[in-house]
Amino acid sequence: MVPFIRLVDVTKIYDTQGVQVAALRGGSFEIGRGEICVIVGQSGAGKTTLLNILGGMDTLTSGKVFLEDEEVSAYGRRQLTRYRREDIGFVFQFYNLIPNLTALENVEIATELARTPFPADRMLEDVGLGERKNNFPAQLSGGEQQRVAIARALAKNPKLMLCDEPTGALDYSTGKAVLKLLQDLSREKGMTVVIITHNSAITEMGDRIVRIKSGAISSVRINENPKPIEEIEW
Amino acid sequence: MVTRPHAAWRKNRKREIRRSLGRYLAIMAIVALGVGFFAGLKVTKRAMVETGDAYITTCGMYDERLISTLGLTNDDVTAIGELDGVRAAEGGETVDFLAELSDGTSYVLEAHSISDTINRPSLTAGRLPTSSDECVVDAHVFDEDAIGMRIRVSDENDEDTQDAFACEEYTVVGVANSVCYLNIERGTTKLAGGKIGAFVYLPADGFSLDYYTEIYVLLQNGGEIFSDAYKSAVSDMEQPLTDTLEARSEIRYEDLKADAEDQIADAEETYSDSLDDYVTKRNDAYEELFEARDELQDAARQIAAGWAKLNKKATQLDDAKAQYEEGLAAYEQAESDLQQQEADAEAQFAASQQALDAQRAQLENELAQAQAAGDAVQIQAIQAQLALLDAAQSQLDQQKAAAEAQFAAAEAQLAAEKSTLDAAAQQIEAADTQLAAGRKELSVSGDQLDRRMREYLDSEADAEAQLAEARHELSDAKNEIDDAKADLADLENADCYVLDRTSNIGYSCFENDSSIVDGIARVFPVFFFMVAALVCMTTMARMVEEQRTQIGTLKALGYSNGAIAWKYISYSASAASVGGTLGFFGGTKLFPWVIWQAYGMLYGFAPLVYVLDWKLLAISLAVALLCSAGVTFVSCRTEMTRMPAELMRPKTPKEGKRVLLERVPFIWNRLNFLKKVSIRNVFRYKKRMFMMVLGIGGCTALLLAGMGMRDSIRNIAADQFGNIMKYDFAILFDAAKDEAEMDDFRSETSGLLSECVFVCGDTLEVPTKAGEKTVNVIATGDDAIADMIDLHEDDGQHVDYPPDGSVVISDKLASVAGVSVGDTITVRLSDSTQCSLPVSGIFENYVYHYMLMTPATYESIFGKDCEYESALASSALDDVHDVSARLISDCGASNVTVSADIRDRVSNMMISLDYIVLVVIACAAALAFVVLFNLSNINITERVREIATIKVLGFYHAEVSAYVFRENIVLTVIGAALGLPLGVWLHQFVMSQINFDIVKFKVVIAPASYFIALATTFAFTVTVDLIMRKKLAGIDMVESLKAIE
Which of A188, B440, B451, B897 is deepest in the core (most CB within 10 A)? Predict the structure, then answer.
C-alpha cells in the first residue's frame, strides 16, 4: 500500500544572522490514510516545524515530503497555497478565528475556498454548535471556538487535518471533548488527522505515535489499539 | 519611583527604535510636515517684512513726504529740517512728462531727483549719473540693454514741463529699482492715458525748476515697517510737520504774491516804455517814408516830363520823316516822270528822226531816182521836200535841244532837290539817333525809378509789418499782463499735504500682501497638526498594545509606571523633536522662498532675508511634543494602570459588531462573503477609520484646493482678454483726434484693423475701506465699444452701457467700495475734488478697476471735454506685433499696447503662483502617503494573526491582499467623498485670503480638477497598497501564529 504521507530525510535549518539552528535533522517516517498520527515531543523539539512543513507553510532545507504521489516539498509558492487551500485543514492552538465573523461565517470563509466543501452549517452542527452559528468568537468559550476551528478545517474536505496543540489553551474536560471530536471525525469520516502535542498521555489515542527529540525522529510506533479519549486520563 | 537608567534599559530603547524604524519615521514625517507648514507659513510674513524693512532702510525710504501746491523752497527745507524729531529733510523734484526713447517708443515717465540720503535708487546694472544729462531707469520696465539709450523730453509736453528739464535729452547710464516703487504699480498722472509707464531718476541739476515739488523727511524715531512703534512715531510727527508746512506755505504764498506783483509792475513799466518807444519809432519811420515817397514822386514827375518832351520831339520827327518821304516820293516820281519824259521825248525824237531819216532816205532815194531820172520837177519837189525835211530836221533838232535844255534844267532841279532831300534825310537820321538815345536814357531812369519805387514799397511794407508786429507784441504783452493780474487775483493759498508711507502704493500693497500669508497660516497648520496628533496617537497606542506583555513583564520586574511610560514617551518625543526640527528648518527655508518667488513678478526688489525665529521654533516643538509625547502619555496611562498579570494575559479580543448595513438584508445578502468581512472590518476600528477618512479626506481636499487655485488663477488672463476686454490693441495718440481725424485714421488703417473705437481715458481715485483705489475711466459715445469691452455679470447676463449721468463699474471695485447697482459711488479726482455718481451697472472684470461712462458724464465730472487720445482696436491679422509697429510707424500712433502682451504678462505672473500650488499638492501627497502608510502598517501588524490564518487557510496572495486592502479602498472612497466638499470650502477660503489688489480671482474649480484630485488620491492609495503587499507577502505564517497575543 502506498503510504498516504511520506517524509524522507526531512531537514530544516534556520539561518538567522549567521546563527544556524537545525530544527529538524533528517527525519523520515510515514503516515497511513485515515490514521490518527500523534507527534509528541518537548518544547522546541521540532514538532511544530514538522507540522508546518507538512502543511505547506514552511519549506525544507533538504529531504522530501510526499502526499499520495505528489511531492509536496517540490511545490512552488502558488502550488503550496493551492495545497493548503484544497488538501489541508489546519487547527491551531489558539483557534485563530476571524474575530469579525460569526461562527458560521468563519466556516464559510473556508468553504468558499475549497473545491468540494461540505456545507458550513452542517459542519457546525456536526461539531455540536448548530445553535451558535450566529455568535461571534468573542461570544464563544474556548472550547466552542476550537470546535468552530475544527469545523472550519473539516468543511474544506481536506485530505489531511493538521492540529497543532489543539488543546493547549483549553482546560482538561474541554480539551478532552475536542480530542473526542477529532477522534470521532477520523473514525467516522476516515479523515487522516495529525496531532501535535507535548502531552504524552494523549499519544494513546493515536494509531501512530511519532516521537521527536531535538529535531530527530526518535521513534515511530504503531499503536494497534488506540484508546478512546474517554478512557484516557491525565 | 524612577529607575536609574542603565545599559540594558537604554539598549532596549535604542533597539526599539531600530526595530520599528517605519513607525518612528512615520511619526517624524508627520510632525515634520505639520511643523514645516506651520513654521514656514508663519515665518513667511516675518521674512517678507524683514526683507522689506532691510531694503527700505538701506535705501532710506522717506518717512514723510511733504507737498505744497505752490512748491517748496530751500528755506522750507531748512525750516522742516530744524524741527524736533526730524533727522533729515531734503527737497525733491518730481515731474511727469512725455518721453520719446531713442528706440522709437514713447512713454509717460515720472522723473525724480536723485538724493544721497533719501530714496536712494538701488542699481541692478550700470552706474549712477555723474552729469546732468544722464539718468537711471526703472529696472522693472527696462533691462541692462537700455543702457546707452537716450530719452528725449518730447515737444508734445507743455511749456512748463519742458522748462522743468535742464536738458532736452538724457542718456541712460544705469538701471535700478526704486524704494518708492516696491511693486509694479507706477502710479497715475494727468498726462495722456493717465498711467505712468516707468520712473526715471535724474541728478538734481538735470532739472531746472526753481522750487521743489516735495520735501522728503526722515524721522529720528522709527521702527520696523508696518509695526505699531513705527506707526505711532509717524503719527506723533504729523501735527508738527503739518503746522510747519502750513506756516511755510503761507509765507511762500505771500512771497509768490509779492514776487508776482513786482514782476507785474516791472512788466507794466516795461510795457509803457515800449509803447512810447513804439510810438516814437513809428513816427520816425513814417517821416522817413514820406520823404522818400516825395522824392520818388518828384523823380517820377521829371521822368514823365522828359518823356513828354521826347514824345513831342518824336512826333515832330515823324512829321519831318513823313515830309521827307513825301519829298522823296515826289522826287522819285518826278525823276521817273522826267526819265519817262526823257525817254518818251527821246523815243519821240528818235521816232521823228527815224521818220525824218526814213523820209530822207526815201526822199534821197527818190532824189537819186529823180536825179537819175532827171526829173527836175521831181527833183525840185523832192528838194523842196528835202528842204522841208531839213527844216523839219532843224526844227526837230531845235526841239530836241530845247527839250534837252529843259530836261537838263529839270534834272538840275531834281538833283538840287535830291541833295536837299539827302540833307534832310541826314538830319532826320541824326534826330532819330538823338531821340533813341534820349529814349534810352529816359528808360534807364525809368527802370531806376521803378527799382527805387519797389524798394520803397518793400521798405514801406517791412516797416508796416514790423510796426504791426510790434503792435501785436505790445497787445500780447498787455494781454499777458492782464492775464497775470487775473491769475494773481485767483492765486489761492497752497494746499499742503503731509503724506506718510501708507500713501505710497508699493508700500501699502506690500503690507497687505505680506499679511495674506498669515491668513493661510491660520488654517493649514491646524489641519496638519490635527492629523499629526491622530497619527501619533494611533501609532503609539498600537505600539503600547503590541508591547502589553512586555509592559506587564517590566512592571512585574519592578519598574515604575513612570519609567516604563518614559520609554514610549521618549520614543515619540525624540521622533517628534527630530521631525519638528527638520520640519522647522526645512519649512522656514522653503515656504518663504516659494512665496517670495511667487511674488517676484510683483515685487522682487531684493533677495529674501531668511528669518530664524527661535521663539517660533520653541512653539512649534512644544506643539509637536504635545501632539506626540502628550498623546503617548494619554495612551499609556490606561495600560499603565492595569495590573501586571492582566497585561501579560492576551488582550480580550475586540468584539465583532454588527454593522448597520446588516439590517438591510436586501443589500447584505447580496454581498460577496469577503466583502461582508471587509465592511465589518471597516467599522470595527473606529479610531483608525476616522483617521484614514481624515487623512484621505484631507489629501483630497488639499489636492482639490490646490488644483482649484490653479484653475482660478490660470484662466484670468484668458477670461479677461478673451471675454471681457476683447480688443487687440490699446492705441495712444500724440494729440486728441476730432471726428474727421478719426475717420481719416480709420480709413488709413482699414487694412490693418478690423475695428477701431475711440475713447477718452483718464483716472480717478475711489476712497474705500481698504484705502484709495485707482480706477481707469473710459468715456466714449461710440456704440461699437460693446465689441471692444463686453459688459456682463458673472452669470453671463448682459450689462448695458451707462446712460448720461451714470457709470458702470467693475465688480471688484463695487465690492471693495461697498456699492451695488442703484447706489452712488464717491470718486476723487486728481485735484482732490469729490463727486458722487450713480451706478447703473456692475460688470465682471478681473484685472484693474474700471469705470465706464458717456462723454456727457465725463464732461460733468472732469469739467473738460472728452479728448479722444486713445482708441481700442481689433485686427483680423495674426501678427499683432507687426500691426502694432506699423500703427506707430505709418499711421501716427504714439504708443500701442498689445493685449496679447498683457495677457502673457498676467499669465506669467500667475505661473509663479503655480509654485505655491505645487507645494500644496506635494504636501497633500506627503500627507496622504504618511497617513495611509502608517495606518496600513498598523492595520497589518495588528491583524497579523488574522492574516496569517487566512494564508494558512489557503488564500492566494492576491486574495490576501484584497482582504486587507479592500477596507482601504472603501475608506478611501468615503474619505474622498468627504474631502471634495472640504476641498471646495478650503479653496474658497484660500482664494479669499489671496487678495491682490489689481486682480480679482474667479473662484472656480474645473470639473477636470475634481477628477484629478480623486484619481490622484486613489493613486496614492493604490501605491501604498502595492508597497504594503510586499509586507503581506512577507508575513511568516508560522511565526505569526505562534505569538501569544
Answer: B897
Three cell numbers written together for B1012: 484629478
Contact across the interface for B953 and A84, Cβ inside 8 Å? yes
The pLDDT assigned to B832 comes to 67
| Whether A51 contacts A162, CB under 8 Å | yes
Give the separation between CA A100 and CA B1004, rounded to whole angstroms.
45
Give the three cell numbers for residue B706: 490646490
Quote the Cα angle for A223-A225-A229, to 5°: 100
Cα B135 to the center of its chain, rounded Å: 20
To 5 degrees, how large is the angle CA B756–CA B758–CA B761?
135
Q: For chain B, which ranges sit under pLDDT 50?
A: 1, 1045
How far is the first Cα of chain A from the last one, in angstroms, to the nearest whole number? Answer: 35
- Chain A stretch 8-67, residues whose beta carbon is closer than 8 A to a beta carbon of chain B: 48-49, 52, 55, 57-58
Express each pLDDT in A168-221 by its tens digit.
Answer: 888 888 888 888 888 988 888 888 999 998 888 888 889 999 999 888 888 999
Nearest to B170 by CA among B130, B125, B212: B130
- Residue B657 has a pLDDT of 64
Pick from B684, B952, B964 the residue to mutate for testing the A interface (most A CBs within 10 Å).
B952
Burial-class residue B570 by CB neighbours within 10 Å (0-12, 13-18, 19+).
middle
pLDDT value of position B1: 45
The residue of A60, A100, A101, A135 whose CB has the most chain B CBs within 10 angstroms, and thus the best one to mutate to test that interface, is: A100
3-state secondary structure B120-155: CCEEEEECCCCCCCEEEEECCCCCHHHCCCEEEECC
Residue with cell 512665496: B595
Average pLDDT of the segment spanning A137-164: 89
Helix axes B957-993, B686-719, angle to 10 degrees: 50
Burial of residue A86, with CB atoms counted within 10 A of its CB: 0-12 exposed, 13-18 middle, 19 or more buried: middle
Amino acid in position B219: L
Please indicate whether residue B75 or residue A16 has the higher confidence score (pLDDT).
B75
Distance CA B160, CA B164 (A): 6
ipTM of the complex: 0.78
Q: What residues contact B932, with CB distance under 8 A and at least 6 apart?
A: B692, B695, B696, B968, B1020, B1021, B1024
Give the whole-angstrom CA distance, residue B785 versus residue B852: 10
Residues of B near A (Cβ–Cβ under 8 Å) read 652-656, 673-674, 676-677, 680-681, 684, 945-946, 948-957, 1037-1038, 1041-1042, 1044
Paired strand residues for B772:
B767
Yes or no, beta carbons of B673 and A57 under 8 Å apart: no
pTM across the whole model? 0.60
Put simply, the answer to whether A57 touches B949 (Cβ < 8 Å) is no
**Would the CB atoms of A100 and B656 count as touching at under 8 Å?**
yes
Give yes or no for a contact between A110 and A117, defined as CB atoms under 8 angstroms apart. yes
Q: What is the pLDDT of residues A20-49, one digit of tens each?
A: 888 888 889 899 899 999 999 887 778 888
What are the tens digits of pLDDT across the range B19-63?
788 888 888 888 888 888 888 888 888 888 888 899 999 888 999
Contacts of B661 (CB under 8 A, 6+ apart): B667, B668, B679
d(CA B80, CA B64): 11
Q: Which residue of A has its CA nearest to B683?
A: A100
Contacts of A96 in chain B (CB under 8 A): 945-946, 948-949, 952, 1041
Interface check for A145 against chain B (CB to CB < 8 A): the answer is no
Looking at the DSSP bridge assignments, the partners of residue B843 are B810
- The DSSP H or E segment spanning B853 is strand B850-853
Residue B656's pLDDT is 62
